[in-house]
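Table 4 source record.
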Amino acid sequence: MVDYDAFSRRHIGPSEDQAQTMLMELGYSSMADFIADVVPQNIAMTKRLSEALPRALNEVDVIAELRALADKNDVYRNVIGTGYYGTITPPVILRNVLENPAWYTAYTPYQPEISQGRLEALFAFQTAVCDLTALSIANASMLDEGTAAAEAMTLARRVYKGSDDAVFLIDINVHPQTIAVVQTRAKPQGIKVEVLDLSKNPSHNEVFGVLVQYPNTRGEIIDYSALATWAHSKEALLIAATDLLALTLLKAPGEWGADIAVGSAQRFGVPMGFGGPHAGFMSVREGLERSLPGRLIGQSVDAHGNPAFRLALQTREQHIRRDKATSNICTAQVLLAVMSAFYAMWHGPAGLKTIASRVNRQTQELASSVTASGHRVVHSNYFDTLVIEVKDAPELHKRADSKKINLKRIDATHVGVSLDETTDAKILKDLCEIFGGGAVGATGKSIPDSAVRSSTYLRHPIFNTMRSETSMLRYLRTLSDRDLALDRTMIPLGSCTMKLNATTEMEAVTWPEYSSLHPFAPAKQNAGSRELIEQLSDWLIKITGYDAVSLQPNAGSQGEFAGLLAIRNYHDSRGDQGRTICLIPSSAHGTNAASAVMAGMQVVVIECDDHGNVSIDDLKAKIAQYSASLAAMMVTYPSTHGVFESAITDLCGLVHDAGGQVYVDGANLNALVGLAQPGKFGADVSHLNLHKTFCIPHGGGGPGVGPVICRSHLAPFLPNHPLDELAGPATGPGPISAAPFGSASILPISWAYIRMMGGEGLTLATSVAILSANYMAAKLNPMFPVLYTGEHGRVGHECILDLREITKVSGVSVDDIAKRLMDYGFHAPTMSFPVAGTFMIEPTESEDIAEIDRFIAAMTAIHGEIQEIMDGKISVEESALRHAPHTIESVLAANWEGSYSREVGGTPSVRNGLVSGEIIGMQGKYWPTVGRIDGAHGDRNLICSCPPISEFA
């Protein structure tokens, strides 16, 4: 009997009858027989996952458990600062963006024609960062402030023309977590870092970069212009870690000589969330744009000459340059960046300055009160942060605790206070009382004249027109309608695992018990979150067969780096410093090679055989060649070619016998959960994509969580954190991310998913994902040949369609088919990865058979269009394929001159003799808002922020 209340029947798209239909189509009578033909028996689990995990709960009971955990958190008012601040998320943004699946279920905008909404929002984010920092170009966000600073360091090293002996200088008053992340990143790359007091110019001869905090972590506003001049005399870059809200009042970094600005946009409407996720940012001066890491949104034109947005320049450079890549960052914090952009629009320049001025005035009032009470404010120049010299800091912390306020802990005679947007009269009164005083009006000023901002910012109309909720609401809706997300259609991207992000999983994210926690608050106040983290960690260990895990990495790329760093440090601890070679298959994700280089390794490529498997012969040859220096092998399993390689245990054994370690990329874990465990079939370490297998939504290209998980011998080398001794082993390499537990506020999503699915549900989900992929492969294979299969002719959870012969014969490219799919209402599969001229398709377990058949019908219809080209009925240049996607404006144009009808272009299902709904689907016709975008034009004419106000004069 079916359990009506089971969450698994809501999460898994195909019903039992539909699954049975797919099995019959493939020639199987049972799921067990089918899985036995797909998953090699030498890696198959012998114990059911349901025996290791708690039994599944229904949605109501899971919310109750999450509430019980939330109640164990004690939400204090935080004035700790140190890069994390209270903020107010405008309700119109909270409900219509953060809680809206149209925004949080979208994917990275690789297909820009169906991503114009979030691309416009990111363009605005870049503009806001450029304006506030007074630097010419900004990227579409970074993972957090700490990793942004680390990326800025490597950027500076990359462009430096001097010797390798040059050092990187960090001011002692940079946020401590930022210093630690930079040091962790620098060490394996052999970069020399010195932390010192840079209030006076240093005496170093060879310097490639200098990092300062503005205002610094103690709140002081320092004029760094002389330091910038000194750095430039050494041909070094000056990097300013800064605060966007402070920059509404302070002279911008670009105005006093900074070359790069980094920081976090968290206080622009994104809750602290116990550390994340938040949008880091980076902006650079003119001349550095082609070295900028991460994603960059540019403006180009479409086929009709209309402006259109797209990813520009070096996007995903690691997939092109691989081991020559300068960064392994392959995503951004899109959802959080667009929230911050909308926050800037909602308040506008006047509103932001009002908030900043109020915070600064309140800080002055507090300073006057504590001074009148006999304490000493250490710095006279400040924006929102005070360091106060007191006689008995423990006593003050005790008083603050009685009022449920967290002061910043410094030492026995100093405390810190950072005010923010949420500071009201009650908090200010309580703070004055803690220091033994009462309300005193502000006296004097805390920002010196030389530091006062005189330049304008956010002058573009987009930041000055949406003050009413009506206009803002309509703008948000307009943008979301321009995108194609999971709330409209299947997104069949191979390797990306775009599946249901259930509402129940998302519900707790905005609860204040989770979202209002400061990452550096005392552990006793966040006991519920720590218990949730401990439970989730335990479940991930049981699912994968490993022994230890760190949830700190806030992206899959950072999990890769952490895992390889653990291998590197493990070898070093044994005196094997010479083990620096990392073997990586030619089919691997591009981030693999980039991560290996970041961990101080040298990449050696292993070839694949004709069946798409790692070549055993080439592996043996490379091991023999590099046996004494072999550090690791990185493999993705199932392979990036979508195949379960039966020789995986042999591969692991060969590497281990040579003294190396095995890293299994967890990108394809959705094909393993409940069926096989990498920690048991030979792997030593993996990263897991919680934003893939475990249902954290992709958010338009971020947020993500990429835990690193390993066997016991590597556990001592997992990430730790200088501000939280409970967040990793004392022997760890330092932090990978700025916060102790990374993007902690979204961990309840994966916790809820596992809790509601249980072992049986997770195993069934994996089985159905593999079944759906094989059903789709079998249906499409006669038209678009499946490139690689396993021993029994089956694929894993994804399949690669080989379009190269079609292209050769017809001239129709993968790009043509991808754009034409938009006319049918679909997001294209992954294009030309890992094999050029192919599609990689992954339906996941969440799509029911009707949606899968709808996609198959669309691909069948497109094949018919290709056949017409091959039959000579129409040329490829005149075909609808080459002119796709079709906008409603182009279809309704008075001067239609196409060689095919308007209906063929705009409503292609009609011309194929099908009832419109069979392909268009229940949601109706989707119209892209722009035609095919000219990427080359955008790179030749690089425009990455809104035009200046002078153009509107």
